[in-house]
Structures are given as structure tokens and as C-alpha cells.
Task: inverse folding
């Protein structure tokens, strides 16, 4: 597997996906090697729960920062060089995760003569509302198109993404496979206690701070609720390019006393926060899947999500979460108030969510489905 990020190097949701999938593959008895980038807390060649992880130096040859695609292509040389450490070992399948590793994936496919499977976790077209601006977005879109063309089989994480990938890259439908994201439920379970911990009027959201993640909608909803629920507070965790604009909006709307931008929050601190929260909100305007929704549910937090992309598919018709129309801060405010002031509703949501995760989103089940795609690729 090839991935730009792998724990403890975490940028977005891809790290958790590749980690969960790789470990499940290893549990099933398969040899798994992951190529990724280095991190100061780990070595550059280690075994983790049966998965061998090789890491390349992330220092890139000098190129201007705004030459993103050129920088990524250059760094792929260092990823490709990791193949020299494998000796005579060869994989049966190469699995590339998103466009950032496309050049290494295509090179190793030819070098080793094995099929390539590519998972497209999100598209540049989708991030820009269905069109592709000129410049870097157009270049990224071109690499995504090329990767899906070179791959024998393509994986997308939701029906929404299957349609987006099939139509956007003009792929035959039989080449695109639906395999959802998963969750390691054990990592998010709350400690067992005889009584349900008290839930505060605390709203928690986390992820990359980008415009399409919709955190600006959440802050407006909190402002709308401050007089209706005087003790409401909100914590938004994460880093990203929209952080400064989001802070400006918070200041202008006069909610800086009740909305906190917490920056990066380690998983153990996030889980402690989720033990107290009255609800989790995923307010995305665009979301191919929404693994944070699974994390919120796994932690036992009542979860409210925007009716968009893969998020809607996770929750629709399950009673495991509450949906609102994306971008509508009034609708979101009403959902938050409903969940925070009706403990029985919140309890039902937690019960339904636990059942949904156990039946559909374990990594072992998702690994088995992914293996069927590998076999399909090997058959040509």
C-alpha cells in the first residue's frame, strides 16, 4: 500500500483508513507492506501489528512552495526508492491511496508487473463544488484522472463517490468498486461505568479546517443558540488553511467566548472530550465519506451530520444520527437543541449507532471486501 500519510503522521482521514485496512489484512494472514513518509517519533522500517511500514525522507528537493504537483512528483522518487529495501520480496497487488502517490504506484506497477488498485478518497473537482479551476486544481484533477486510468480497479468509499469518480474520470462502471471506510471501535469505546456520565451542553467538531468542512456553518448555529441555551459551548479541533478566516468569523459574530478553536488535539484528549460532549457535529459542505462521523458514533457521542455525500449514506434511515441540510445554520441549530435537550433521543442514537458500526463498518469486514477487489484486479 502507498499512502502519503500513515500514523503517527496524520494529515486527514487517509492515515486512519490505511492503518485500519492494513492491520485487518495482516490479521487475515496476508503480508502487508506500507510505503509512506517519515515521522520523528518512529523509525523508517518497523513492524506494527503484522504490517511492515517503510518511510521515506519527507525533505523535498527545492521547488517553490506553490508548485504543489511538481513537489509531489519529485517526492515520489523518494517513495519509489523504498522498493530497494524489500530485497527479493514482491507484492501481488499495489494499492495506491489518492493522487499524491500516483507516480510511485505507476512506476512499481510496471517494474514488478503486478496489478494496480487505486482508492480515490476525494476529488479536486468535488472540493471545488463540481468544477475544476485552472492552475493547481486542474493539475491535480489531471493526475487523479491518470491514476484511475492506469489502475486495473478503482475503489471509492460511498455511492456518492462512486458516481463522482465514474462520471468525473469517464470510467466504465465495472471498474469502480464501492468499499466503505471503517472504524476500529475498540480505540474509541468509552470506559465502562455503572452509570452514564453526565453530558454537558458541549458541542464538539474536528477535522481539517477547510472551507468545505463547513465549520463556519457550525459557528453561526452556535451563535443562534446562545440565548436559547445559555450554557452552550463549542470546541472545534484541527488545523488547516481556513483557520484564520474561521477565527475572524467567530470574532465578528461575537461568539469567541463560547466557541474555541483548539488546534490539533491528540486522540486521547479528543476521546476525553467526547466523554463529556452533548453531541458531535459534522457540518461538511462536501464529504466523500466522513470517517469522523464513525469516530463520533464509536465514542458514544450523539452525532449530527450534514445531508451531503457519504455522510448522508451513513446515517439515512438508521436513527443512528440526525441529518440537516448542508449550509443551513438554522436547521443545524434546531438539531443541536433537540439532541441536547432530549436525553432519551440522545440515548437512542447511541444505541442505534453502536449496532450500525458493529454490523457494517468493522475493518475486518472491509478488508474482506477489499481483497475481492484485489482478486478482480489480478484476474484482469
Result:
Amino acid at each position: 500500500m502507498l499512502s502519503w500519510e500513515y500514523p503517527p503522521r496524520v494529515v486527514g482521514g487517509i492515515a486512519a483508513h490505511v492503518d485500519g485496512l492494513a492491520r485487518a489484512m495482516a490479521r487475515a494472514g496476508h503480508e502487508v507492506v506500507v510505503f509512506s513518509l517519515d515521522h520523528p517519533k518512529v523509525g523508517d522500517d518497523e513492524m506494527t501489528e503484522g504490517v511492515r511500514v517503510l518511510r521515506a525522507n519527507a525533505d523535498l528537493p527545492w521547488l517553490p512552495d506553490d508548485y504543489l504537483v511538481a513537489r509531489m512528483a519529485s517526492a515520489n522518487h523518494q517513495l519509489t526508492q523504498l522498493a530497494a529495501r524489500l530485497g527479493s520480496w514482491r507484492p501481488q497487488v499495489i494499492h495506491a491511496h489518492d493522487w499524491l502517490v500516483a507516480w510511485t504506484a505507476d512506476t512499481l506497477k510496471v517494474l514488478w508487473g503486478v496489478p494496480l488498485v487505486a482508492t480515490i478518497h476525494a476529488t479536486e473537482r468535488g472540493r471545488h463544488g463540481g468544477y475544476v479551476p485552472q492552475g493547481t486544481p486542474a493539475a491535480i484533477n489531471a493526475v487523479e484522472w491518470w491514476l484511475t486510468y492506469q489502475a486495473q480497479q478503482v475503489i471509492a468509499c460511498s455511492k456518492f463517490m462512486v458516481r463522482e469518480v465514474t462520471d468525473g474520470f469517464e470510467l466504465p462502471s465495472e471498474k469502480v468498486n464501492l468499499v466503505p471506510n471503517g472504524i476500529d471501535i475498540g480505540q474509541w469505546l468509552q470506559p465502562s461505568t455503572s452509570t452514564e456520565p453526565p453530558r454537558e451542553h458541549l458541542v464538539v467538531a474536528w477535522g481539517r479546517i477547510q472551507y468545505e468542512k463547513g465549520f463556519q456553518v457550525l459557528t453561526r448555529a452556535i451563535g443562534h443558540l446562545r440565548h436559547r441555551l445559555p450554557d452552550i459551548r463549542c470546541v472545534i479541533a484541527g488545523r488547516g488553511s481556513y483557520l484564520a478566516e474561521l477565527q475572524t468569523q467567530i470574532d465578528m459574530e461575537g461568539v469567541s467566548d463560547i466557541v474555541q478553536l483548539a488546534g490539533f488535539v491528540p486522540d486521547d484528549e479528543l476521546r476525553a472530550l467526547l466523554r463529556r460532549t452533548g453531541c458531535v457535529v459534522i457540518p461538511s459542505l462536501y464529504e466523500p465519506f466522513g470517517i469522523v462521523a464513525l469516530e463520533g458514533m464509536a465514542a458514544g457521542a450523539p452525532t449530527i451530520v450534514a445531508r451531503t455525500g457519504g455522510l448522508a449514506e451513513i446515517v439515512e434511515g438508521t436513527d443512528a444520527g440526525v441529518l440537516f441540510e448542508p449550509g443551513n445554520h438554522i436547521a443545524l441549530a434546531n438539531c443541536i437543541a433537540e439532541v441536547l435537550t432530549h436525553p432519551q433521543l440522545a440515548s437512542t442514537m447511541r444505541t442505534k449507532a453502536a449496532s450500525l458500526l458493529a454490523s457494517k463498518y468493522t475493518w475486518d469486514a472491509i478488508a474482506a471486501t477489499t481483497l475481492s477487489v484485489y482478486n478482480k484486479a489480478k484476474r484482469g
About this structure: The mean pLDDT is 92. The CA atoms of residues 236 and 261 lie 5 Å apart. The chain has 15 helices and 13 strands. The longest helix spans residues 343-360.
